[in-house]
TrEMBL record:
<dbReference type="GO" id="GO:0030600">
    <property type="term" value="F:feruloyl esterase activity"/>
</dbReference>
<dbReference type="GO" id="GO:0045493">
    <property type="term" value="P:xylan catabolic process"/>
</dbReference>
<dbReference type="InterPro" id="IPR043595">
    <property type="entry name" value="FaeB/C/D"/>
</dbReference>
<keyword id="KW-0378">Hydrolase</keyword>
<dbReference type="InterPro" id="IPR029058">
    <property type="entry name" value="AB_hydrolase_fold"/>
</dbReference>
<keyword id="KW-0624">Polysaccharide degradation</keyword>
<keyword id="KW-0119">Carbohydrate metabolism</keyword>
<protein>
    <recommendedName>
        <fullName>Phospholipase/carboxylesterase/thioesterase domain-containing protein</fullName>
    </recommendedName>
</protein>
<keyword id="KW-0964">Secreted</keyword>
<dbReference type="GO" id="GO:0005576">
    <property type="term" value="C:extracellular region"/>
</dbReference>
<keyword id="KW-0732">Signal</keyword>
<dbReference type="InterPro" id="IPR010126">
    <property type="entry name" value="Esterase_phb"/>
</dbReference>
<keyword id="KW-0858">Xylan degradation</keyword>
<dbReference type="Pfam" id="PF10503">
    <property type="entry name" value="Esterase_PHB"/>
</dbReference>
């Protein structure tokens, strides 16, 4: 019981800091973001929308769904990825759905039901996200043929699940820092995919073996008390990509499409409606290429930041996931 209480305190104080940061460091591009709620399966759930500065209500506008990782929320995801700035640059709408919130001493920690055997929660997140898309189109002039999904970690797993189960609404996906966690994938059509992963990621292990448990390791570092094991067996990222290529019914060998410093992108089925691209980033851990570590590293010299990086690994600016995924998404429509 003492272990649980101490862990909850660490989580709460961590997220209290995030809330303070968000309320006092709001970026100009975030200031007009809208928050909405819908009722799905008798539960009220919210989402956040960023409308680009060039939005024209008379023109259909593409949408990117940006899914936070486990323990995150819609605001932390916007801050970490910088997707709003990319939205303003290219003119797409960003929608931040929010996972099921677990209340911990009044603070909200979100996660997704991604289909893994070792479940965090059991809810209909595919149905919720489908309902979010339907709700957004009642408020804005969206291009329903160009709705894309991305996410990090637990959110990346959810992106794969959406491809498997909601391909009638999801045009293409861009998972970051996690293999898919599904046990079956009833894919009704090929879903173009670009996957980003750090070669030094031990949280969603690039080399496979055991995945998960990194947040727990970080909290243990902070409080010096061991917590429950949350790791699970996973295959290597290259092996998972090969499996996804087969699911997408691609038979061609990969082609090198980008090489920059430690980053390397290959493409299977390049130019086809089922393309799978895979970008590996050397020396990067469990992170968003071109993004940041968020509030925990606002002070890069702080102990909590150094401990976080020690567990999660480094970020990298070698490539921008935002830029590359938008280039990729722009090629595809339903």
């Amino acid at each position: 019981m003492k272990k649980i209480f101490l862990l909850l305190l660490v989580i709460v104080f961590t997220f209290v800091g995030i809330k303070f940061y968000q309320s006092s460091h709001t970026k100009k591009t975030d200031s007009l973001d809208q928050y909405f709620s819908i009722i799905h399966n008798n539960t009220e759930r919210r989402y956040r929308v960023h409308i680009p500065t060039t939005y024209d209500e008379n023109k259909k506008t593409p949408v990117i769904l940006n899914l936070h990782g486990g323990g995150g929320n819609i605001d932390s995801m916007a801050d970490m990825t910088g997707m709003n700035e990319t939205s303003d640059k290219y003119g797409f709408i960003v929608v931040y759905p929010e996972g099921t919130l677990q209340k911990v001493l009044g603070k909200s920690l979100g996660s997704w039901d991604t289909g893994m055997i070792k479940k965090i929660i059991t809810v209909d997140d595919v149905g919720y996200i489908s309902a979010v898309i339907d709700d957004v189109k009642t408020k804005y002039n969206i291009d329903e043929a160009r709705v894309y999904a991305t996410g990090i970690s637990n959110g990346a797993q959810m992106s794969y699940k959406l491809a498997c189960e909601l391909s009638n609404k999801i045009t293409a996906i861009a998972p970051v820092a996690s293999q898919g966690a599904f046990t079956t994938c009833p894919l009704s059509r090929p879903v173009p995919t670009i996957h980003f992963h750090g070669t030094e990621d031990i949280c969603a292990s690039y080399n496979g073996g055991l995945c998960g448990g990194c947040l727990q390791k970080y909290f243990e570092t902070l409080i010096g008390v061991s917590t429950a094991d949350t790791t699970y067996a996973c295959e290597s990222v290259p092996n998972f990509i090969e499996k996804w290529v087969k699911i997408n019914n691609i038979s061609e060998a990969p082609k090198l499409v980008l090489e920059k410093d430690t980053a390397r992108c290959i493409s299977y089925g390049n130019g086809q409606d089922r393309e799978v691209a895979f970008c590996s980033v050397g020396n990067m851990g469990h992170a968003w290429p071109g993004g940041n570590h968020g509030i925990v590293c606002e002070d890069a010299d702080s102990k909590k930041c150094k401990d976080y990086i020690r567990v999660m690994g480094n970020t990298s600016n070698t490539i921008s996931a935002n830029e590359l995924m938008w280039q990729f998404f722009s090629k595809y429509s339903l």
